[in-house]
Amino acid sequence: MKIKLSLCFLLLSTLIYPLSYAENYLEVEPILSTRIEINAGEDITITLPANPTTGYTWQLAKPLDKTILGESSSSYVPDRTQQVGSGGREIWTIKTLKPGRTKAIFNYLRPWEKETPPVKTITFIIIVK
Asked: Quick one: which of 76, 61, 44 has its CA closest to 123?
């Protein structure tokens, strides 16, 4: 009887572990890249789909290049729906200071999950004229 239970547990664990691993692995999307060209002194507005009810938010992967870009701010605008848990858009505004080329890299993640990679990453190549 013990052997049968052990075999059942072993069989179930070998089936469940790869499925849970694959599920977590498939959530991670490839890195996307977008190019933005803008004049110095204009604001960049970046709109990203988001759903903070799941705990995920967009964050800058590293600080912006302060020689080209100025202050940044973000706000969340929910979709116009009455459904609980529905998503919306996170809107980022970045000021431009002077001509140059830089990147703004955003990660979509749960801030408290320090050892977990972001589920989405998007890179904006910013060319300020």
From this structure: 61
Residues 6+ apart with CB under 8 A from 15: none
pLDDT for 96-114, tens place per residue?
A: 999 999 999 999 999 999 9
CA dist., res. 91 & res. 47, Å (int)? 4
* Inter-residue contact 24 to 115 (CB < 8 Å): no
Which pTM does this prediction carry?
0.71
62: which 2 tokens? 């590293």
Q: Do residues 39 and 97 lie in contact, with contact meaning Cβ atoms separated by under 8 Å?
A: no
Q: What is the CATH number of domain 31-128?
A: 2.60.40.2020
Task: Write out the H or E segment, with its range, that includes residue 66.
Answer: none
| Alpha carbon distance 45, 35 (integer Å) | 13
Q: pLDDT per residue over 21-56, tens digit each?
A: 333 333 444 456 788 999 999 999 999 999 988 999
